[in-house]
Amino acid sequence: MIIPVILSGGSGTRLWPLSRELFPKQLMPIAGGEFSLLQSTVLRLRDIPGVASPIVVCNENHRFMVAAQLQAIDTPASAIILEPVGRNTAPAAAVAALEAMTGGEDPTLLILPADHMIRQSDSFATAVEAGSLLAEAGFLITFGITPERPETGYGYIQRGQKPDAPSAPQNGGPDAYSVSSFVEKPDLETARSYMDSGDYFWNSGMFMFQASTYLDEVEQFAPAVLEACRDAFSLAKRDLDFLRLDPPSFQACPGDSIDYAVMERTSRAVVIPLQDIGWSDVGSWPSLHEVLNKDDQGNVLIGDVMVEDVHNCYLHSSSRLIAAVGMENHVVVETKDAILVASLERGQDVKAIVQRLNSAKREETVVHPRVYRPWGSYECIDCSARFQVKRITVNPGATLSLQLHHHRAEHWVVVKGTARITRGDEVILLSEDQSTYIPLGTKHRLENPGKIPLELIEVQTGSYLGEDDIVRLEDVYGR
To answer: Which helix (H) or strand (E) is 338 found in, with range?
Structure first.
């Protein structure tokens, strides 16, 4: 049995302004398609024999969005492990291995970042089948990407000899090589020499090994990591669909990557090359521009975009028209609250802008205008002193907390669907074009009893309109 372990961390800085701290790129359809990167990662595993439901390791702030996205593709996780703090990939894989072995089995783990793009799923599936044989033989597999160009932004893996190991499946599967060395990001001249030699691969950050094998290697090479992970796991609490690691124990865990903690030290490391699979770590606007489909002028155009004499650009509109004339080698990304304009070759430097915004305590790096909650989402349409207008969407069957506000009253107008509303001691049903008023201090609850999303307009009025003016009396989400 193969259990995918999806690592869904990330701070949402490299693809700002689309990606934010509370809504990072792996949870977005970043390429303009139907599915998020997380969903696409899970979906490409469906046709691989022996693959079970995934374990997802994520930030606590993203838990409800992760669960909702997996349910939307009818692939609920076998476990969603919540990290109280980020400690890199080695601890994340360790707690996933501990969870995978709770039933007494020793499955093969396929470690995948949630924010990568792979366009050729069939080739990837073939490599996974080859990796499963090697994992069962006690090897730790990393997947290397055959370089398409001299790249200074990736680490590299140098291959050695073919190991004494089971051969690939008889369906044209890839070869495997022992790992000779891991190499940090090189300069351009060195990267060219790596590519010319044919002995080096980009380090994809994807791995495969049996759970017990990985834990044995962590115990040997990074015992402090395993000790802290065992403590955090043994003291973890199960809450709804989530496994909450013990915060003090996990905070005490050293941060380290699978590469540094294990793969660079073990004698069991094997690399399987992946060629022509359309891989990208989607780590910057230039890398996204490179892998997406382009028009005849080399442009990636997403959303409402009109161009004239524009070449080799990435233009992404989220809410309004982008019109561009006479541009070349640029990135323009529009959201409702921010617009990024950058030269394509400087697209990786967006982190500098994010750092300045964070220093200024601007919210544009943290949340989108649309804020996602376990029951749906809300979006601020207009606000000023003593009033705020929101568009609220409640998922079918979802329920908000029973709550009250000390400083504001609320007016609700249903524009789509049916709302069941608790207001004080009464419960009422509202359909489209009907409204109600929630006086200040009145306990209330909003529910969607229907099978389509409920949409309503909320007008808040009062002396204070902050989100912290919520007194939750009952909450099905345990907040």
So the answer is: none
Q: What is the DSSP letter of 106?
A: -
Sign of the torsion formed by the C-alpha atoms of 294, 297, 298 and 301: negative
How far is it, in rounded angstroms, from Cα 377 to Cα 23?
12
b/e string for 163-183 if b means 16 or more Cβ within 10 A? bebeebeeeebbebbbbeebb
**Is residue 180 within 8 Å of residue 269, measured between CB atoms?**
no
Sequence ranges of the domains in the chain:
2-280, 292-359, 370-474
CB atoms within 10 A of CB 59: 19
Dump pLDDT digits (tens) for 12-54. 788 999 999 988 999 988 866 789 999 999 999 998 999 999 9
- What pTM, to 2 d.p., does this model score? 0.88
What superfamily would CATH give domain 2-280?
A: Spore Coat Polysaccharide Biosynthesis Protein SpsA; Chain A (3.90.550.10)
Q: What is the DSSP letter of 31?
A: T
Distance CA 393, CA 350 (A): 31
Q: What is the dihedral of CA 111, 114, 119, 121, to 10 degrees?
A: 40
The length of the chain, given as a count of residues: 479
Nearest to 148 by CA among 347, 287, 296, 294: 287
Per the CB < 8 A criterion, the answer to whether 329 and 345 are in contact is: yes
Q: Does domain 370-474 have CATH number 3.30.1490.20?
A: no
Range in 38-42, 397-401, 435-439, 466-470 with the lowest mean pLDDT: 466-470
